[in-house]
Every structure is written in structure tokens, then in C-alpha cells.
Amino acid sequence: MNAAVSWVWGYISDFEWWETVAKLAPIGTALIALGAAGIALWAILAQRNIARRRAAIDFFFKTEMDDKAIELYNKFKKRAPLVSSAPEPWLHEDYEDIRTFLNICELIAVGVNKRTFSRNVSFHYWRDVIPKSYRTTEELINRIRNTPEHGSPYTYIELEKLAKRWDKGAAGGSFRLWLVVSIVWIAAIWILAGAWLL
User: Which of 86, 107, 169, 195 has the least C-beta neighbours within 10 A?
Assistant: First the structure.
């Protein structure tokens, strides 16, 4: 037993062993710092994603519980094709209700496109409604955009972007994941290279 202890003590007290450890210490420190930064980044992204999911679910829940919103949706499904094809849609009795429902869709689109709402939750809940609503009223939207009293070239532009993206079936977010992973790898390589050169 004493021989083993004296061998370990002799190995630890050997100066060359400590010199090797000292050379590797910056790399170990860099790895620990990189791990801590990765955990912190993961925690921040997780909290942000939870907040976005909550915002989307709260908004959709309130919309579903609101009788006026349900009535607007039902009226939109029945009347939107008639209003869209009318010679002067703004004179149609249901024009204001159709515009109100499109405004709700635009609000959802702004929330998704500007990343206030979770893209994933929004996509899985409204993926049929948003593209179909846009397709149904595309002619009306173009006429509104070309009539200065009723709109501008930017009217429902966020709705159009989101509807076209969702028509392709994409919820988005894969680019963001690729970007975060790439940044972490580049940072790791940079830190390790810097530590190794020391």
C-alpha cells in the first residue's frame, strides 16, 4: 500500500506532469467557458420559445372564445367569395366584416412574421385558415391595395407573405437552428485554437 502511495506521490510531485497540466489548463478553461455559454444560450432560447408559445396560445384561445370572432369567421367563409367578386366590394353589406376578419389574419401574420408568436404553434393551429383566407380574398386584397381610399400597396402584406410560406408547408425555424449550431461550432473552434496557440 505504501509503495502505491509513494508512486502516486512521486508522479504528482514530478515537475513535467504539472507542466503538461499547465499547458492544457487554458484549453480546459475554454471548454468549461464554452459549455457554460452553451447552457446559458440554451436557457435563453428555451425561455423565449416558451414565451412565444404562451403568447400564441393565449391569442388563439381568446379568439376561439370570442363569439364575435366566431361569427366573423363564419360570415367570412360564406360571404368572402361574393364580396371579392363584386364590382365595387366596398359597397357590399358584408365588406366591413370581411375586412375585420382579414385584419385579424393580418395581426396573426404580423405576430408570426415578427416572431412574437411561436411559428410552430401558429402553423399547426392556423395552417389551413391563413392560406385559404388569403387565396379566397386575393382578388379583393389586390383591389383594396389599388384603391387609395381603402388601402395601400402594404395592405395585408404580412398576411400574403405568411400565406405563401404556409402554402409550401413550412413552419420556419430550421434556418435559425442551423445558424445557432453554426455559431456555437465556430466559437468552439476559435476558442480552442486560441487556447492551443497560447
Answer: 169
